[in-house]
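Structure ticket #2291
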Amino acid sequence: MLIVLASVLGIASMVGAYFAIHSKSLTVAIIATGVVSLISSILFLLLAAPDVAMTEASIGSALTSAIFFLTLNKIRQTNG
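Resolution: structure written out below.
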């Protein structure tokens, strides 16, 4: 059961990474990157690494996405 769930999450992570790379919209790419990071944190939790999962969820998913959105907003304000 764990192998099936890990495989499904791995495939979902690869799909999210594909959208992050090939997206024309920067907003969609940032959201896809956050989803990949969130899926990674779930995988870390399934692999019995709760400390790494919490770090990935807080820094990788939340903080990095927020910084990307703030930077994108600042760039759009500067360019007019």
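Closing remark: Residues 50-79 form the longest helix (30 residues).
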